[in-house]
Amino acid sequence: MRYVLGIDIGTSATKTGLYREDGTEVAQASAAYPLYQPQNGWAEQDPEDWWEAVAKTIREVLKQSGVPAAAVAGVGMSGQMHGLVMLDEHNQVIRPSIIWCDQRTGEEVTWLNEHVGRDRLIELTANPPVTGFTLAKLLWVRRNEPDHYARCRKILLPKDYIRFRLTGQFATEVSDASGMQLLDVSRRDWSLPLLKQLDIDPAWLAPVYESPVVSARVDQAGAQACGLLVGTPVVGGAGDNAAAAVGTGVVTEGRAFTTIGTSGVVFAHTNQMKVDPRGRVHTFCCAVPGAWHIMSVTQGAGLSLSWFRDQFCQNLSAEAAQKGESVYRLMDDLAARIPAGSDRLIYLPYLMGERTPWLDPDCRGVFFGLSAMHTQAHLIRAVMEGVTFSQLDGLNIMRGLDLNVEDMRATGGGASPFWRQMLADIYDCPVSRLEPNGGPALGAAILAAVGAGIYPDVPTACAKTVQLGESSQPDPALTQAYQKTYRLYDQLYPLLQPAFAQLKQL
Asked: In terms of Cα–Cα distance, which of 477, 505, 455 is closest to 235?
């Protein structure tokens, strides 16, 4: 029996799974680490924390399972996208990584729009300038930390830094590199014209691989730290959402998934590259060679619910601890008592600014329509509805690009029965869960299985390893009720946008 490792370097923790070649998980381990916010809107992490978590969780899954390292046929990695890791000439980290949800780069986005041009950037990289993308972060360092910039010799994404620590080799792959705003997404390689225009040394960037292709092998230092054998192949891997697509079987035309983690994503596979000329959704290379995906992003999706839990649901947390249950299940139960529309209470999930569809780092969260009749349960349901409306924003844009989504799957928070039904009602389409719940770690492992030669290609591997669970069907009456609330939700940001800009100046 052959086994594969899937490693997901997330925002709050690293999760590592060991899987049989048929996709059955035999062991899983996770290790958490902190997120630092030195200023409002900033978000940083220490790459050493990621490495320690990866090494620890690999050792744990090997120990739990009793599987010998010699039986591990390959390693796949997924990771939070867009993070900037800068190395000096000695391959040492220069400064903490500025991660995906950081919003400090508004001036850099303005500069890119003025000096390169929004349309030109869409032409070169398939996407407009975005505060969260790696390029804007690099330009921020160049402007604000010139000493750090002068020392830079290599730019890596979070999972690619882990690859370097595990193998001693520099590499990246097409899906994660697409989110740097330095990749020509149509050609699936670095955009040399953009690098030249911005005076960024191409040597700072790692070679680009397709996701299931072997990119490096575990070296002596990596083996000693993690317990793997020297020479174990490590495939290109994928950004977290592209890996989640593999883990959910969204690898053919007509399939899509919704995931609600810290951020929220609607992700649709396409065999033909499609670009939104207004830049409201992202077009990236996907983990299937020769294919692409269109992705919308809600910055504060699951973050909205976890923030509300931590600040206003201490009673539910205490009750959950006493009963040995999930606090989120108790929150679901409370929300289910409230009618669709939350009795005219609407939540805008802009805790960390927003990407889709507004691309505005300065907007902030709002409860609209709050009155004395509203209870804790109303606010919980309103948060969930607001997050789901923001996901519908992205899905509607995709539908406008003639993307016919016939098969929607849910992972993360959206896979709970209550939230999955809400998704089905608001999307007005069936939403299925995975059995077991697929995700980035499984997707990374499937890519490793392809790279190890266990399967000939990604769609074949997914057909053998990914299983659908139950499906939630939309309720026409609830869909109609939600459409009324959504129409008002859709009007609120344009009305509030000038006020958000003024708020920033206070």
From this structure: 455
State the DSSP string of 331-398.
Answer: HHHHHTTSPTTTTT-EEE--BTBB-TTT-BTT---EEES--TT--HHHHHHHHHHHHHHHHHHHHHHH
CA dist., res. 298 & res. 301, Å (int) = 6
For the chain, the helix, strand and coil percentages under 3-state DSSP, each to the nearest 5 = 45, 20, 35
What would the DSSP string read from start to end of 381-424?
A: HHHHHHHHHHHHHHHHHHHHTT----EEEEEEGGGSHHHHHHHH
Question: For 133-189, what is each residue's pLDDT tens digit?
Answer: 999 999 999 999 999 999 999 999 999 999 999 999 999 999 999 999 999 999 999
Reported as type and span, the H/E element at residue 468 is: strand 468-472
| Strands 172-173 and 189-190, sheet pairing | unpaired
Domain residues for 64? 3-248
pTM of the model: 0.88
240 is catalytic: yes
Contacting residues for 117 by C-beta, under 8 A, at least 6 apart: none
CB 269 within 8 A of CB 251: yes
Say if 187 falls within a structural domain.
Answer: yes
The per-residue pLDDT for range 83-114, each reduced to its tens digit, is 999 999 999 999 999 999 898 999 999 999 99
Fill in the DSSP letter of residue 112: H
| 278 domain residue, yes or no | no
Residue with tokens 């978590």: 53
Catalytic site residue from 49, 160, 176, 240: 240
Most distant pair of Cα atoms in the chain: their distance: 64
Please state the domain count of the chain. 1
Query: Comparing C-alpha atoms, which of 354, 494, 506, 444 is closest to residue 54?
Result: 444
Q: Which long-range contacts (CB under 8 A, 24 or more apart) does 142-150 make?
A: 143/107, 143/108, 145/95, 148/86, 148/94, 148/95
Instruction: Quote the tokens at residue 108.
Output: 């850099």
Q: Is the pLDDT of residue 45 over 90?
A: yes
Q: Is residue 123 part of a domain?
A: yes
Distance separating alpha carbons of residues 65 and 104, to the nearest angstrom: 43
CA dihedral (235, 96, 297, 170) in degrees, to 10, reads -20
Q: Which two tokens stand for residue 111?
A: 């500069």
Question: Which residue type sits at 373?
Answer: M
In angstroms, the CA 417 to CA 173 distance is: 34
Here the CATH number for the domain that contains residue 186 is 3.30.420.40
Establish if 177 belongs to a structural domain: yes
Q: Which residues contact 88 (CB under 8 A, 6 or more apart)?
A: 94, 151, 152, 153
140 in Cβ contact with 205 (< 8 Å): no
Tokens standing for 97? 């990584």
Q: Which of 188, 175, 187, 182 is nearest to 200 (CA)?
A: 182
